[in-house]
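Build the 3D complex.
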Amino acid sequence: MLPHVLKRGDLAAWVEALAAESRVAAPVLKETSVSDPTDLKFAWEWVVDPAEVRLDYTVTVLGPKKFLWPPRQRLVRYRLGADPAPQALVDHESQVLFGVHPCDLAAIGTLDAAFAKDVADPHYLARRRDTAIVGLDCGAPCDESSFCLDMGSLYPESGFDVMLTPVNDEYFVEVATERGEALVEAARVRPASKQDMEAHQAFAEEKRSNFHYKLPYEVKYLPEVLDQSYDSLVWEAIARRCFSCGSCNTTCPTCYCFDVYDEVEPDLAKGCRVRRYDSCQLDPFAEVAGGENFREERWSRLRHRMFRKGKYILEQTGRPGCVGCGRCDRACVADISIKDTYVQIAGSR
Amino acid sequence: MTRTDIEQGATAESPYVPKMARILAADQMTETERFFRLEMEGKALVYEPGQFVGVTVFGVGESPISICSSPTQGDAFELTVRSVGMVTNALKGFGAGDRLGIRGPFGNRFDYDAMKGQDVLFVAGGLGLAPMRSLIRYVLDTRGDFGKVTILVGAREPGLLLFRDELAQWAQRDDVDTRVTVDRGDKAWKGDVGVITRLFRKIRVDAARTYAVIVGPPIMFKFTVLEALASGIPEHRILCSLERHMKCGVGKCGHCQIRGVYVCREGPVFTYEQVRNLREGI
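Done.
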């Protein structure tokens, strides 16, 4: 399907049409700072009123990960007593993630790889299969914490069904998949003209000039830079101010570690096995039943996260563990920055 | 990931659903260790020495437990469980005829093929005897395939020794050199007293043809590896089984990760050479 153009004024009608077919999640305005009315806080939520959708959003505390990989997910249900007859619970229904920035597209690609590799995880993959994604290109960095250009997530090539680019007062609409074609059928679009193409080109050029590299090396060297810093005191130094609160993990769009536990229903006749987000920064994460803790020191947990994001996930899945969205930096109450850390360790070569 | 990977994976069987097994026999081996012999209700468990399973007590949770039997023993499989948490304490109430959930087997195996024709030196400390017994039983059941077999077992005190009857049987065999020591003896104890490393002084090791298999608590592992290396055994012929916190068994949950390695998939059996390079292994 050739590129099309959608007027901004027709966006809500499109979202409404999509919402009639399946649930739609999109960024909405959550609150406005009392002291600074230009400081807007956005969040990913289920769309109730299509007019609420804000494609001018910058960052969200949590990405759209939660719709694919919920913080709490039931995996298995069973009966209590003589015949448990355990059965998988794979809950999924079709959904649209509307307005996903390039960093989060890259992050979803990492989750896809992590859950599909080796042993497939249908609890994630069934939701993923039934999720259509409308991407939204970025023309400028969200803020100083962003380093998506460095991490190679700024120019997505796949992982979306439709890509929207804000051009003047319109959206340039590119379709990447058959599912995307079906989505766009519900929109009042017109074919893109030569001028639209040029405006799209101009956006791309401006985008290129708005983003700047922040790491002093190419990202392909990051695993090597990390390896060379493994024994450095830098980890202890940075971890001095870490509270091990796990906010970095909670906000990370690629974190997928989980805890598993059982719940018994109030009737004491049924139970289920549940998983929920876990954090490698929390003290008991690597503790075994006998009490031995293999990452007892706070700095060893911090180092583990920095390595996982910059090296291990990449090596395991072929996809980046960090997409440079900057969420962990913004969430850190101790001002620890993954970007600044990756800059600092370059000095220990 | 391609669309196909996602679509195929979406309809894959969930790796998190336990299958039902029936307890054939149970025995409280020590105050804290309970032994189970189980049989799957459907297809028999196909496993290798060194692997582990997830054991479910429905309504309580799941724990990763090493299989302590060898596939040479038949379709049933055996577990030794130390009561330390909710699930393992709940297991104290389970006996013959009761049913449990089982997932797995998970993990790699002891590479017994490489050991064939070679001498094998087993060194087990405490509960380490449980995972090691899977390989000991395999080696003893195919005894002719292996050279000299030495079994060193250590425990804190006589009452904590596992598989006491079997230890006595192995001690009777003239094709196996079995030595048992305890850190502290009691009035009835007539055997060796002292840490397990002292047993190395009583044995002869032909370093060029010996595999050392060492399983025990981290502190014991460290000093025992030192003895094995001092005997001249190269790093890649020293094997161990690592214990880690595990929640999934399929390389997803992240708890067992040592640097870039998921112990549940790439382990739990590693050579000392691998453990050393992992740095965070022990």
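The mean pLDDT of chain A is 95.
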